[in-house]
């Protein structure tokens, strides 16, 4: 996800550059003033509360502002990220935005400050007043607005400068040159982005075979919790021995192999895999997360890098076809102990539905999810998923 805050004094050309960023990178525009007006016009509960405060001459609180921003972000998951214009305005709001981004499992990539000398701003706005007829574009009002901007903005800019995500652009140049500088900043941020895909699907949907093939095609790393567990056991590592101990103590049953291992074990495996793959372009996750708790764990692991979920893909196959596939697999060399009977197959399908529905709902609300028809030849299904992944690459690059 690409999240940008755009700063600039009056007359810096912020509106023009905002239009470019929104269109070029498919971002959702967040202006607190615009959002407030929309909520008031809709007559929503938050809008009515804000309207009442304004009607009595008060200032809308940060609590209301952050609710409106969070609501807007959650209601627009189809965008590649968000462009914040005019927010945060204060040092306190900078902390609020950090907290909100953390809650939504993302972060602010950069603050782009379009810098223009004060006298240049005055000159531009006076000229705009002559051509537009705007009464507020006179020198006294302009200088008052500029002083207010710098007074409020300097602490916020210092806040992000200390975080290392402040990027300054010379706004006194031609529009095209400023645009080019901004594009370089954004492309640099995008180059840091990992493509992280969570592949969902019932047992028998072909997640493993498709995930392995797609990881190879797109130069991503395939992470399967079941395969990581098996590797530790086969290599007789310290963690592998711990897993075998759980079997021996009866705390895990062979038929549940790779299904319900304690979170602390699975997390160690995932983190170990990440440490070995510092230069990875991204990951395809299969078999993790399996629970809602594990989805939050994965969000936390990715934030350490820093990164987040890019795409959620669900392979859909009718239940009867899943049963047919799993029964067929049981008569091949690829059979699994948990496919030994119809009762265990049905239980696995039921368990998957019970655990996975809440995870998909969570990811759909935040990131959106794409359903893929999993019926057809391997190549046909592969192409359907590949097309979605290719689109994802374009979005983050």
Structure description:
The chain has 397 residues and is an alpha/beta fold. The chain contains 16 helices and 10 strands. It has 2 domains: 190 residues, P-loop containing nucleotide triphosphate hydrolases (Rossmann fold, 3-Layer(aba) Sandwich), CATH 3.40.50; 202 residues, Rossmann fold (3-Layer(aba) Sandwich), CATH 3.40.50. The strands form 2 sheets. It has a 5-stranded parallel beta sheet with strand order 2-3-1-4-5, with helices on both faces. A 5-stranded parallel beta sheet has the order 7-8-6-9-10, with helices on both faces. Helix 2 packs across helix 3, helix 6 crosses helix 7 and helix 12 packs parallel to helix 13. The radius of gyration is 26 Å and the shape is elongated.
Provide the descriptors you would attach to this structure in a database record:
single chain; 397 residues; alpha/beta; Rossmann fold; 2 domains; 5-stranded parallel beta sheet; elongated
Give a brief outline of the structure.
By secondary structure, the chain is of the alpha/beta class. The chain has two domains: 190 residues, Rossmann fold; 202 residues, Rossmann fold.
**Radius of gyration (Å):** 26 Å
CATH topology of the largest domain: Rossmann fold
Structural class: alpha/beta
- Report low-confidence residues grouped into runs of 5 or more: 253-259
State which percent range the strand residues make up: 5-15%
N to C succession of SSEs: EHEHHHEHEHHEHEHEHHHEHEHHEH
